[in-house]
Amino acid sequence: MAVFTNQTLxxxxxxxxxxxxxxxxxxxxxxVLDAFKKYFLPLFDAKTSVAxxxxxxxxxxxTAEALTKFGFEVTKRELExxxxxxxxxxxxxxxxxxxxxxxxRL
Length: 106
Hints:
By secondary structure, this protein is mostly helical. It contains five helices and no strands.
């Protein structure tokens, strides 16, 4: 089915998989490392990236301290929400439930 889809809908040649395999095998270790250094490592550098971290309230200070050590500028914010907003339509449509609010059958 995949061959039909590739050839008919995507317009790739019948030997597309073999061509890809040959291209992958031609990639050198140095090329992989260069791409890793250029595109992946900067994601973790405080000078070139922004990190958004959500953590448990008890871990906020430890997480902030660790990120500061790595050079990130840390701004702490507490997420505020209305517990009533957490209810979904499926919560109220439960056919049978127990007194603790959990379904009596799974």
